[in-house]
Amino acid sequence: MTTNITPAPTIRWATPVLTRSVETLQPAGERLWRVLDGRGAIRGHLRIMPHDLGLRYRAERLHLPSGTFRVVGDFWSADDAVAALRF
Question: pTM to 2 decimals?
Answer without folding.
Answer: 0.81
